[in-house]
Amino acid sequence: MRRLRALCVFVIVAAVPPLGGVFAEDQVKIGKEGEFIPLVAGKPYLHVIHEGRSIKVQRVQDPDYELKGYFAKTARKCPPFCIQSATPDPSVNGIGEVELFEFMETKLRDGSGVLIDARTNSWFRKGTIPGSVNYPFTLFDKEADSPEVIDILETLGAREREEIGAVEKLLEDWGWVDIGHKTDDWDFTDAKDLVVWCNGPACGQSPRAIRGLLRMGYPGEKIKYYRGGMQMWQLWGLTTVVPRS
Amino acid sequence: MSSLTPYRCGRTPVCRSARLLVGVVALWSCFSVASAADDPYLELLNEEATKVEPEATDTGKDSDERVLPDSGSKLTSRERFEALLEQQHAGTYSFYRKLPERSREEVFLDYSNGASMEALREKIVDRYLHP
Fold this sequence. Notes:
- The structure holds two protein chains of two kinds.
- By secondary structure, chain A is of the alpha/beta class.
- Chain A is 30% helix and 14% strand.
- In chain A, strands 3-9-8-4-5 form a five-stranded parallel sheet. In chain A, strands 1-2 form a two-stranded antiparallel ribbon.
- By secondary structure, chain B is mostly helical.
- Chain B folds into two domains: 8-52; 64-129, no CATH class.
- Helices cover 69% and strands 0% of the residues of chain B.
- The chains are: A alpha/beta, B mainly alpha.
- The interface between A and B is large, with 55 and 49 residues.
């Protein structure tokens, strides 16, 4: 049925006359042939909504551009700024930039995903990846029943479970009832997919946030770790924004 | 025999208060240890953050405000685009108008940024099929 629908759409669209003169005049060429550096082959840029604005995410086009400043540094005091593992937990997968672009164009766009900048606010204020919201890792160190955590978990699509009967509880404890993505207190069935990131491969803030989320029962399969973080994002010359608020 | 039995605090108000006090002190010391362990890390993080200059590589020229300096012209441009689409690409428009506002805005921004009609049509169909 879905294929038939796709075929119908294709036929209708293909039957529409090709681009008219008005559109041809309005087109803006993106650099000269072969000179534009796209995000990935075939994708010059993408748009994400950040604080109500549509932000164009693309790479810096200056071929002489070099990364300078804090994120160009290779050495930092360790501990605490030590190189992190590929993933903070076996249940959580790490992703790279290409997967993050895809996430931005799908789940972030349709609201089923959240891009979390897990750094403290002092970092967030200096610049962030477009589309990110700031949930500092310290929030996830708090108890699961604290008001801030409850607020965040609800924002992320988790639902507080109502009191369950003793028999139901017993059945769940014995494994006779499939509890899926539920804990005693929370139902994460409709929880959003998350991509959590911080300053880069030597940053421990997002791993801590992820471990905090897992402790609260957030399903590992709904969390992705962008280990590259701000450092790799900037190394590729990708668009950053300074939050207004 | 009774001299060997260890002293046990009963349910007297004094004992209850003492137990409560011990509990509070234990809890407080746990929190203070945790925050003491965190403080140096947070301090270092804040110290590091001061070394970063606020920097945005988004120039704003591709954001909706810059493409469309005021809301009046935004409406005009968007309406013009939609009218154009309706007149010249009725099939594509029929899918476009069924898209959610966010996707329509995205299509319009792509158009403003110079995307070809072919690319726009592809995007519209894609958003329609994969809402």
